[in-house]
Write a structure and sequence with these properties.
Elements: E1 2-6, H1 13-25, E2 31-33, H2 44-54, H3 62-69, H4 77-85, H5 88-95, E3 100-103, E4 107-110, E5 123-125, E6 131-133, H6 136-142, E7 150-152, E8 160-163, E9 169-172, E10 180-183, E11 189-192, E12 198-206, E13 209-217, H7 221-230, H8 234-242
Parallel strand pairs: 1-2, 4-7, 7-9
Antiparallel strand pairs: 1-12, 3-4, 5-6, 8-9, 10-11, 12-13
Helix pairs in contact: 1-2, 3-5, 7-8
The structure holds fe (ii) ion.
Fe (ii) ion is lined by residues 36, 61-63, 111, 155.
């Protein structure tokens, strides 16, 4: 079995198109999507057209949830920008997304952790604002009760694999559309992929073991950086142009 795992598209339709083309070039015909599809100062409308057309197994991200649970006045600027571009069909699609799901009996999908959609699973944030690998015992504790051999999560936009003591593998494919961001919780911090390409993962089961290949796909990231700047978001413009928040 071989398939692609994508996550955190965040309204970046050019990055998504480049990744889908890369997946086609590899002749991979199964894709799963780990959520946070549209939120961002980019093009949620065009992204929704593509994503809804694909009909992928998809779990709900925290920003997917904010787009259908929060009133427009309460939304952050990234969610509000996306919300205005989405039609009823896209909002209904978001509303129907599951929190988590088991795919083909052997892959578990969630957006952030199996317990909630907004805590970092494989990383943690120190009080000084450093994003560091989370202690393995804590990662392991949250995987309790999941019997699938491959466990997928997104949310932190950082590509990483963690092998659990019993051999299960937890994988974050990284972000398709947003290589860096800032957040205030649990402490003010930056997450930076330090890379401008669209990231995703190819997962293949070989001799009963999961082999993961992280892919980095070039696309016209400067066009999206310019779009973010035109939409009043210098932070996103920096992230898309450089992979850093500068
Ligand atoms: Fe997220």
């Amino acid at each position: 079995m071989i398939f692609a795992a994508i996550a955190d598209i965040h309204g970046n339709h050019l990055a998504l198109e480049a990744v889908l083309e890369d997946i086609r070039r590899l002749s991979i015909d199964a894709v799963v999507n780990l959520g946070d599809c549209f939120s961002g100062p980019l093009d949620a409308g065009k992204t929704a057209e593509i994503v809804l057309g694909l009909g992928l197994p998809t779990v709900r991200g925290n920003h997917d949830r904010y787009l259908v649970e929060q009133p427009l006045e309460a939304m952050g600027p990234s969610d509000a920008h996306a919300f205005r571009q989405l039609d009823d069909r896209s909002r209904d699609w978001l509303r129907a997304l599951p929190f988590d799901l088991v795919w083909r009996d052997e892959v578990y999908l969630c957006h952030a952790t199996p317990k909630d959609d907004s805590t970092y699973w494989l990383e943690t944030v120190t009080s000084e604002g450093h994003v560091v690998p989370r202690p393995a015992t804590e990662i392991e504790a949250w995987a309790e009760g999941i019997s699938e051999s491959l466990i997928l999560c997104g949310h932190t936009h950082l590509s990483r694999t963690v092998r659990l003591t019993d051999g299960r593998l937890v994988v974050n494919p990284g972000s398709i559309g947003c290589p860096a961001y800032t957040d205030d919780r649990p402490f003010p911090h930056k997450v930076e992929a330090r890379n401008v390409h669209a990231c995703y993962a190819v997962c293949e089961k070989r001799r009963d073991a999961w082999v993961v290949t992280f892919r980095q796909v070039p696309y016209d990231h400067m066009a999206m950086a310019e779009l973010a700047a035109a939409n009043g978001r210098p932070d996103w413009a920096s992230a898309l142009a450089t992979g850093f928040i500068r």
